[in-house]
Amino acid sequence: MKLTATLTDLANPTKFLALTARILPWLAGVTAILLAIGLYQSAMAPDDYQQGATVKIMFIHVPNAWLSMFVWGVMSVAALGTLVWRHPLADVAAKAAAPIGAAFTFLALVTGSLWGRPMWGTYWEWDARLTSVLILFLMYLGLMALWRAVDDPSRAARAAAVLTLVGAINIPIIKFSVDWWNTLHQPASVFRAGGPTLDKAFLWPLLVMAIAFSLLFITLHLAAMRNEILRRRVRNLQMMQASRVSFTSEVSGGSQGTASNEIGAA
């Protein structure tokens, strides 16, 4: 019952703004502390016997790569909320998440390229994993462009929700591309059936960074949702004001026309 009441409260934009105003400072503080700990552990981690100091790029690259897919998953749930449950904040959540997901995906591509140059001898290969992640980045940009291009918020929300669900098919392709095709990208070394193969000296800093980046996403997402709610309220107020001005002008114009007719008749 308590959980249901909380979810009901979160469906109310005003209550959502009040709740997030209280928790965001604490969430941001915890995120900053975990990021500092993770960065320190990453810097102190030993060099790999094969990759050398290049292995430390992994502590930034892997969390961003994970979150690039996770954010699309969040947007897919929000898309269902828009199309099926008509949740009032579903489209707000999806629209607020898209730029953050695009940023994580971009960082994953850049850090992956920086790692690939010394390890593969090139910044880029049309590898199945790399190509599918690039497609994910372009899908994020496409959704952001769609929200900007369509003036009607309801139409934009429905169209974006449908495209998000269609694009979700790319997530398992990214995840399992290293298993389905012969790729340059190494297979999973953390989330795998036989357990992690990564040495603990690298595993623990990586997990701390993953948690820190996940909290960073939650913090940024809640802040972006607040901004989107306020932006929509301002837009609605502007439209109401414009309607009032237009109505007042029409009434004033009609009154002047009637007065002129009466004077002419006199």
From TrEMBL:
Ranges annotated as spanning the membrane: 23-45, 65-85, 97-116, 128-147, 159-181, 201-223
GO cellular component, one term: plasma membrane
Cell inner membrane found in the keyword field: yes
Domain of life per record: Bacteria
BP terms from Gene Ontology: cytochrome complex assembly
Occurrences of domain Cytochrome c assembly protein (ranges): 9-185
Location(s), subcellular: Cell inner membrane; Membrane
Molecular function per GO: heme binding; heme transmembrane transporter activity
Keyword entries, A-Z: Cell inner membrane, Cell membrane, Cytochrome c-type biogenesis, Membrane, Transmembrane, Transmembrane helix, Transport
One Pfam family cited in the UniProt record for this chain: Cytochrom_C_asm
Primary residence: membrane
Membrane topology annotation: Multi-pass membrane protein
PANTHER family linked to this entry: CYTOCHROME B_B6 PROTEIN-RELATED, HEME EXPORTER PROTEIN C
Function: Required for the export of heme to the periplasm for the biogenesis of c-type cytochromes.
Family listed: Belongs to the CcmC/CycZ/HelC family.
Protein name: Heme exporter protein C
Organism: Bradyrhizobium elkanii
Encoding gene (name): ccmC
